[in-house]
Automatic annotation (TrEMBL):
InterPro entries recorded: Glyco_trans_2-like (IPR001173), Nucleotide-diphossugar_trans (IPR029044)
Domain Glycosyltransferase 2-like: 9-144
Protein name (database record): Glycosyltransferase 2-like domain-containing protein
Gene3D superfamilies: Spore Coat Polysaccharide Biosynthesis Protein SpsA, Chain A
Superkingdom, natural source: Bacteria
Amino acid sequence: MKVSLEGFSVAIPAYSRVKEFEELLVSIYDMSFLPNEIVICEDGSKERKELSAIGSQWKSKFQEKNCNLIFIENEINLGYDANVRKLIEVSSFKWVVLIGNDDLFLKDGLSILKEFTDRNENISMVSRPFIRFSDDINKPLGFSTIDSKENIYSNSNKSSSKMIFRSCGFVGGLVINRNWALPLATKKYDGSLYYQIYLACNAFCTNGIGYLKSPTVGGRTGNPPLFGSAESESEIHIPGAYSAKGRAKMWKSVLEISQDIGTKYKVDIYKDLKKELMVKQSFHVFEMNVGVGVRELKELKSELKKIELFNHIVPKFLFTINYFFGRNALIFYRLIRKIAQ
């Protein structure tokens, strides 16, 4: 096992999205404090040559700022979970900052993070608020946060395990303590698209998940998911959309992970996580399914019922809204988001 050096690795699981990939590199270059290295694992997309060329163009620019850019071409399509695991493994520095290849860093993102990790050097993971944007980060759609103050979520702090999903469901800007994560590496949950939730469940039961007060990244909305090309994903997931079966598979995996890790540490993290998925997170899923056909909507309902996540009044109400109002239901979701801001 390669020993971790003190410092930061920015880790990018790259797949297609050439334009967004270069925008991400620009955002890293423009930060007030740069990482020690940028590690990119390209997972066999059709745009590999273009992505590699952009990486080569930026390598010398980052070297001038003492930041090493490493572009790795995976021999086979590993899929999301295995690619994240590989990024953690091949990184050289203690703090591995994951970011999707269509998200962006904010100017002081890494400075804010460094100040926190300097004070919490044994923390297992770090999460963050983030700005939601579509095409232009200077025209944000909103601000996503789960806490008004800096915090550490853990079983020892008597936090609710619902904070595991709230803090780590979105991968952009999540920080992994590489020394802590390497011994936990497993292929068991490949295809779940939630390797970070596996790590977060472990973090919650051990040294905790830190949460920053200020945002460090921008999370892009609107791009379709590209999961489904790897062998571990192709049976369920379809590139370009979250199908009902795909979403149910993801949430079923979260429940299985929480049961496994809860048993490992003798901590009940399953109950609150299940309620979190059934109530708060169902809002996001039904919002994403505004305007879909009745058949797709009924399939979503059926899949949620199979994993017992349709028993609460909230998913039933949201299903009804989508069923009767179709695309006009978007007005309801926008109103709720505006009130919640």
